[in-house]
């Protein structure tokens, strides 16, 4: 039954306070576990670590660049609101103070917004702007790669490029927590000078984390959070074609994104240019990228990534996959390349690519679509897994090539691969598995409500990029700070922020929430019709006080609509967090029913603990693995949230993109600069109970909650493109039954029943209940389709012995539970990767897939799971 009764509330029970605070940091531990790649020296990068297909298979035809692809960056340019809006963002917990700024009534001089022209960049295409751009990034004592700073949330910045062509002669180094943004109305160009040089370990026009003389990148790749680059053209055409240079070096983790970028590279014979180079990390999201020319558009390896709307024109190889556990490619257009995706790294004896998912894509005028090294007896057995769905080919000689020849023929004419899979299948209406198969498979029975065109069964799944409001005039924006919210991390902003949100919504305007920590002591209510955008990944709503601290009476920090309200909301680039003990805080409660179009959260994250101002740092919550934790000695003040995001029965039509729900496992602002691990208790991750369903989850990740990371209950029609989880590092000390008692209303998992337990099998010393949280739990739900799933358990009570190579994946017994099977159907999981779990899928207590049967590249990989 659907709850359609609409109860009218006159301005809701919303009050509260917030705080502004920014970013980041993570412990290196899980990344260390990963790292199946060589540290590239410039020499090894140059020496392409993969086999090139035989000359026969690569005809090397020089194809025409289609003229239909628009080339941004020319013509007149409309002003962009972000450039001209009053810049009032602050870093609330930055201690940079001086008497001048105090006299101005501000406690800090730290500047969040930086326009590169105000730092002296000319943007005239002739002046060397390297130093000016670098100054705009580094000014204000920020967190530089390779310094003692591993991470901090105290120095966020927006580095803004107005219209112009900015010539650089050496690499620009990106700092921690930086949004690099160009005017979207006329993409500015970063032009590499003919004498462009990369020295001192730097790679690329923009280096996200340069190599240090330790042979490591400046920031730990799996801890490199909170950064974006948007709306730029990278012009490398003046660099000689034979010089190996990437436009962007991007070894990053969650809450990072690249959006709306164009890469112009040499297409000359022998070109060594490449677009994006990623060799490590735990990403991440990219969308709306166009590559012209070059040797590799992408030259990438990472634990997981979600990438969509990528166009590769005239590259030698569009995508060279160095390694992966899972990587999702959606809406990729490849035209005139020699190879589309090369996933043969490592060769058949040591495959490096765990899995690749490619859907809603096209490959045209290209010799080889996909080059794989997987064979019937390649190693590891589960690796090199490929899932293709709705991939159109036109004039592709070989659709899938092996190192010795054709695996799947192509065609001179147009053809569509409806679905094709190579790897280990578990299909309930066949032999359960694993069945090692390469070949066609019936495509997903796509739910029409999830498609771009619901009337066309062959339509792509809908996708919708983060709105940047380039076409919206300045006077259509309101500022939360101008409207009276302090965002200083200590004033209660509940009333001011609620009033600002309401005013913007009533006036049909967009609310800009200037960088800062907005402390709130009661609920912030976002009504239908709201459009809200934050700044610098440093606009943080911070819950505080007793209202959110009753475990028996949970309360939303941010409530998007009341149950029964309809309409749409757009919300981007913000964080919701808690301050100190908040045992009843539901960080985001999404009730909104969007029946026309979609509502969205883009780069809206929850971050629980581990940052300055949270009172949930090393000092309060440092890990204690040597103490047996019981209900009586558990550190109560580190109980920090009840649920991260609750999508309720009322909600429908929600689109989420690049959303990370993170309970901190380490302190981002640790005074020791040592990524100190902390134990924070947050009850539940992402709970979706929507009765009407219709949700898109592109590039979402949920980590370190007590009972589960993702839980779906009585819902349906959910699209997921690479989801990722990590079990809490401290579990099972304590186990998942404490400190939050079961709430049956929320369909909490019952860890006391042996058939749904997922701890170690049996007792461990004095620990009798070894239950740990689920990565993914699906109850009575249908049409749940995930294109890429990574469920990881690296730790047992902070020890990684249980996930180390050869450990037998003993961090937890089970990881993924499907319950109420009689009412669960059409569940499709493509390229399911687990770490540290003995059983990969459990259905009503019956284990269906053992990790030992699916050994892959550090992870265990199932290519297709369907029931
Ligand atoms: C103090 O802050 C002001 C701006 O608020 C800045 O212009 C000035 O350079 C700062 N002075 C010092 C000594 O840092
Ligand atoms: C500046 O700091 C003082 C002392 O910490 C505090 O009382 C005051 O409210 C702060 N002012 C602003 C504008 O943040
Ligand atoms: C590209 O260069 C290689 C080696 O320099 C040469 O053998 C080949 O003929 C060239 N191809 C074209 C299309 O010019
Ligand atoms: C894909 O990216 C291109 C280039 O950024 C952009 O013009 C286009 O609108 C994007 N398509 C979608 C569906 O977002
Ligand atoms: C390719 O063929 C050669 C010769 O038949 C054989 O030794 C080799 O194992 C094959 N390699 C692959 C990846 O199939
Ligand atoms: C599941 O998807 C199929 C295929 O589009 C559709 O026929 C069916 O109605 C969907 N089920 C629900 C519960 O929406
Ligand atoms: C919340 O803050 C407001 C000030 O905005 C204050 O008047 C109120 O008493 C506070 N409420 C609680 C429960 O702390
Ligand atoms: C259980 O969750 C529901 C739904 O959020 C809530 O209304 C109720 O107060 C919770 N019960 C307890 C005992 O915490
Ligand atoms: C930093 O962390 C490492 C690993 O946990 C530890 O061995 C070392 O003692 C720590 N250093 C400091 C200064 O705390
Ligand atoms: C746990 O151990 C028992 C006894 O050794 C065994 O029968 C059972 O299958 C194990 N359960 C799991 C989930 O591994
Ligand atoms: C068992 O408990 C001990 C002590 O808490 C811990 O060191 C160990 O990692 C646990 N796990 C296993 C599998 O023994």
UniProtKB/TrEMBL annotation:
Pfam families: Pect-lyase_RHGA_epim (PF12708). Residues 113-342, 477-547 form the Rhamnogalacturonase A/B/Epimerase-like pectate lyase domain. Residues 1-17 form the signal peptide. GO terms for molecular function: polygalacturonase activity. This is Exo-beta-1,3-glucanase-like protein. InterPro entries: Pectin_lyas_fold, Pectin_lyase_fold/virulence, QRT3-like, RHGA/B-epi-like_pectate_lyase. CDD domains: GH55_beta13glucanase-like (cd23668). Keywords: Signal. Coiled coil: none annotated. It comes from the Eukaryota.
């Amino acid at each position: 039954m659907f709850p359609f009764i609409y109860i009218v509330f006159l301005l809701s029970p919303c009050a509260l306070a917030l705080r502004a605070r920014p970013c980041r940091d993570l412990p290196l531990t899980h990344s260390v576990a990963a790292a199946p790649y060589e540290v590239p020296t410039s020499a090894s990068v140059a020496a392409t670590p993969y086999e090139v297909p035989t000359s026969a298979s690569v005809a090397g035809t020089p194809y025409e660049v289609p003229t239909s692809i628009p080339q941004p960056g020319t013509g007149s340019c409309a002003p962009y609101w972000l450039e001209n809006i009053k810049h009032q963002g602050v870093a609330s917990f930055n201690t940079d103070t001086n008497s001048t700024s105090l006299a101005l009534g501000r406690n800090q001089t730290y500047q969040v917004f930086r326009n590169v022209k105000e730092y002296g960049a000319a943007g005239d295409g002739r002046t060397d702007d390297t130093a000016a751009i670098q100054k705009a990034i580094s000014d204000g004592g920020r967190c530089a790669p390779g310094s003692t700073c591993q991470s901090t949330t105290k120095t966020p910045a927006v580095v803004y490029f107005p219209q112009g062509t900015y010539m650089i002669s050496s690499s620009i180094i990106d700092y921690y927590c930086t949004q690099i943004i160009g005017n979207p109305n006329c993409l500015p160009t970063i032009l590499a000078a003919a004498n462009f040089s990369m020295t001192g370990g730097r790679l690329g026009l923009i280096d996200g984390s340069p190599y240090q003389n330790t042979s490591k990148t400046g920031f730990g790749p799996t801890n490199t959070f909170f950064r974006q680059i948007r709306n730029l053209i990278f012009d490398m055409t003046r660099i000689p074609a034979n010089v190996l240079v990437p436009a962007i070096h991007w070894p990053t983790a969650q809450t990072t994104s690249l959006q709306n970028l164009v890469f112009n590279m040499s297409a000359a014979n022998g070109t060594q240019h490449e677009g994006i180079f990623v060799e490590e990390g735990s990403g991440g999201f990219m969308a709306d990228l166009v590559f012209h020319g070059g040797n590799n558009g992408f030259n990438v390896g990472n634990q997981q990534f979600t990438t969509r709307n990528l166009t590769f024109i005239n590259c030698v190889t569009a995508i060279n996959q160095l390694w992966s556990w899972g990587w999702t490619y959606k809406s990729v257009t490849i035209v005139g390349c020699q190879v589309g995706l090369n996933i043969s790294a490592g060769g058949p004896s040591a495959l490096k690519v765990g899995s690749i998912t490619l859907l809603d894509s096209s490959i045209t005028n290209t010799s080889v679509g996909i080059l794989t090294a997987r064979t019937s007896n390649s190693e590891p057995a589960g690796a090199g897994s490929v899932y293709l769905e709705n991939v159109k080919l036109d004039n592709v000689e070989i659709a899938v090539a092996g190192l010795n020849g054709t695996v799947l023929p192509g065609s001179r004419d147009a053809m569509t691969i409806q679905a094709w899979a190579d790897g280990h299948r578990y299909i309930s209406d066949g032999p359960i598995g694993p069945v090692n198969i390469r070949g066609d498979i019936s495509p997903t029975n796509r739910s029409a409500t999830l498609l771009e065109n619901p009337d066309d069964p062959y339509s792509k799944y809908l996708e919708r990029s983060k709105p940047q409001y380039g076409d919206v005039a300045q006077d259509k924006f309101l500022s939360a700070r101008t409207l009276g919210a302090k965002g200083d991390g200590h004033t209660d902003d509940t009333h001011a922020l609620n009033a600002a949100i309401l005013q913007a919504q009533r006036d049909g305007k967009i609310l800009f929430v200037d960088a800062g920590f907005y402390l709130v002591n009661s609920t912030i209510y976002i009504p239908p019709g709201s459009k809200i955008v934050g700044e610098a990944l440093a606009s943080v709503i911070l819950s505080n006080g007793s209202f959110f601290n009753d475990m028996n009476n949970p309360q939303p920090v941010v409530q998007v609509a009341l149950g029964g309200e309809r309409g749409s909301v757009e919300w981007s680039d913000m964080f919701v967090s808690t301050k100190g003990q908040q045992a009843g805080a539901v960080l985001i409660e999404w009730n909104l029913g969007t029946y026309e179009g979609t509502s969205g959260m883009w780069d809206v994250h929850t971050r629980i603990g581990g940052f300055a101002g949270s009172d949930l740092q090393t000092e309060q919550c440092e890990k204690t693995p040597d103490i047996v934790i019981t209900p009586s000695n558990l550190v109560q003040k580190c109980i920090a949230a009840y649920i991260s995001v609750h999508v309720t029965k009322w909600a429908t039509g929600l689109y989420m993109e690049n959303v990370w729900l993170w309970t901190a496992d380490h302190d981002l602002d640790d005074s020791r600069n040592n990524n100190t691990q902390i134990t924070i208790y947050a009850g539940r991750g992402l709970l979706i109970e929507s009765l009407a369903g219709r949700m898109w989850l592109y590039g979402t990740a949920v980590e370190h909650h007590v009972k589960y990371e993702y839980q779906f209950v009585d819902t349906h029609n959910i699209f997921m493109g690479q989801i990722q989880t990590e079990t809490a590092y401290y579990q099972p000390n304590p186990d998942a039954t404490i400190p939050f008692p079961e709430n049956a209303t929320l369909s909490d998992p019952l860890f006391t029943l042996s058939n749904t337990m997922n701890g170690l099998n049996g007792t461990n010393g004095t620990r009798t209940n070894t239950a740990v949280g689920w990565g993914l739990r699906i109850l009575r739900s249908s049409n749940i389709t995930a294109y890429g799933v990574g469920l990881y358990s690296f730790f047992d009570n902070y020890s990684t012995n249980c996930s180390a190579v050869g450990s037998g994946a003993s961090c937890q017994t089970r990881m993924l539970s499907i319950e109420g099977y009689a009412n669960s159907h059409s569940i499709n999981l493509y390229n399911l990767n687990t770490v540290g779990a003995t059983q990969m899928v459990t259905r009503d207590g019956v284990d269906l897939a053992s990790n030992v049967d699916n050994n892959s590249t550090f992870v265990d990989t199932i290519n297709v799971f369907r029931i």
